[in-house]
Amino acid sequence: MSLLSRAVQSDGRQATMITWHDAITRLVKPGRVVFTKLPRGATVGTPGDTEQQRRLLATVLQQLTHPLPMAPVVTAETLTDD
């Protein structure tokens, strides 16, 4: 996904990616990226936690308003207690 995001952005289109795996993603250096502290399989939020998912989506979409290149964004989102 990092390579795809970088390719889309290099062609002049807007793109932002969200990932939990910062080690690999930082090597590819996509123009816009949001890192979460959520585990694999819950990258866009804890299943069933729509408020958390909305916050993450808002963070990702907000990145489209910033010019490239930009520093990666790290969210404070973690698993919610049920």
Describe the model:
With 82 residues, the protein is an alpha/beta fold. It has one domain. 35% of the residues lie in helices and 10% in strands. A three-stranded parallel β-sheet has the order 1-2-3, with no helix packed on it.
Helix- and strand-based class? Answer: alpha/beta
The run of helices and strands is: HEHEHE
- The outline comes out as globular
Q: How large is the radius of gyration?
A: 13 Å
Number of domains: 1
Main sheet characteristics = 3 strands, parallel
With helices defined by DSSP (H or I, 4 residues minimum), what is the helix count?
Answer: 3
Q: Tell me the fraction of residues in β-strands, as a range.
A: 5-15%
Helix fraction, binned, reads 25-40%
Distance between the termini: 31 Å
In round numbers, the mean pLDDT is 78
Spell out the blueprint of helices and strands.
Elements: H1 2-10, E1 17-19, H2 22-28, E2 33-35, H3 50-62, E3 73-74
Parallel strand pairs: 1-2, 2-3
Characteristics of this structure?
single chain; 82 residues; alpha/beta; globular
Short description:
The protein has helices at residues 2-10, 22-28, 50-62, and strands spanning 17-19, 33-35, 73-74. It is α/β, with parallel strands linked by helices and 82 residues long. The chain has a three-stranded parallel sheet with strand order 1-2-3, with no helix packed on it.
